[in-house]
């Protein structure tokens, strides 16, 4: 079953993902297999595989469900902000805070875990969610590329936090948010590179 474009998750699938969440918090994402999830959800392996064809599919569904919730919460939180840099900074700070405050999400970014970062960086669904949000702040049309950069920054800070949220806000305000909101298409082209030929100096 493909979860990439299907936003209608059945009650049974939700129960499975909820059971998986408890295991991820307790044991870590990498340590939890399909057998453990089926047992915790109170279903057979056959039923589990009816909804999720493999472990990766379950992880993808889990991350996409969480990303949808976080995106909605962030969007509501910054609804009244008009300044592009302030909007993007506040959105990133809020996303970091929400993920870290939720054990079922922060478990994906514990030391030694790699699933959260990998899925986040390579998910077109998450990039599309973020790109839709970035359209509010970006002044050019390259929102897809900027969304990928936005996600990469958040994943990096989740995996390797700064010393304090204040330090993260300072970095995001000074360097990341302005770059995302800027119109890169209006920047002058880089100087043409030399073809490698040089004039020899006379001796």
UniProtKB/TrEMBL annotation:
Q: Which GO terms describe its molecular function?
A: DNA-binding transcription factor activity; transcription cis-regulatory region binding
Ranges for the HTH tetR-type domain? 10-70
Provide ranges: composition bias, Polar residues.
194-203
Query: Which Pfam families does the protein's record reference?
Result: TetR_N
The ranges of region (Disordered) come to 183-203
Q: Which UniProt keywords apply?
A: DNA-binding
Q: Which residues bind DNA?
A: 33-52
Q: Does the keyword DNA-binding apply?
A: yes
- Alphabetical list of PANTHER family matching this protein: HTH-TYPE TRANSCRIPTIONAL REGULATOR RUTR, HTH-TYPE TRANSCRIPTIONAL REPRESSOR BDCR
Recorded protein name is TetR/AcrR family transcriptional regulator
Q: Which organism is it from?
A: Mycobacteroides franklinii
């Amino acid at each position: 079953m493909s979860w990439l474009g299907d936003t209608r998750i059945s009650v049974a699938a939700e129960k499975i993902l909820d059971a998986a969440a408890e295991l991820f918090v307790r044991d870590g994402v990498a340590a939890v297999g399909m057998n453990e999830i089926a047992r915790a959800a109170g279903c057979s392996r056959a039923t589990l595989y009816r909804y999720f064809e493999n472990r990766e599919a379950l992880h993808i569904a889990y991350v996409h469900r969480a990303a949808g919730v976080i995106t909605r919460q962030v969007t509501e939180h910054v609804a009244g902000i008009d300044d592009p840099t302030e909007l993007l900074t506040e959105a990133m700070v809020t996303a970091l805070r929400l993920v870290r405050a939720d054990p079922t999400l922060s478990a994906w970014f514990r030391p030694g875990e790699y699933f959260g970062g990998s899925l986040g960086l390579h998910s077109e669904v998450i990039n599309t969610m973020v790109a839709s949000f970035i359209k509010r702040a970006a002044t050019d049309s390259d929102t897809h590329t900027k969304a990928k950069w936005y996600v990469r920054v958040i994943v990096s800070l989740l995996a390797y936090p700064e010393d304090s949220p204040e330090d993260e806000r300072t970095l995001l305000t000074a360097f990341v948010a302005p770059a995302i909101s800027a119109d890169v298409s209006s920047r002058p082209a880089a100087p043409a590179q030399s073809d490698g030929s040089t004039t020899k100096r006379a001796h």
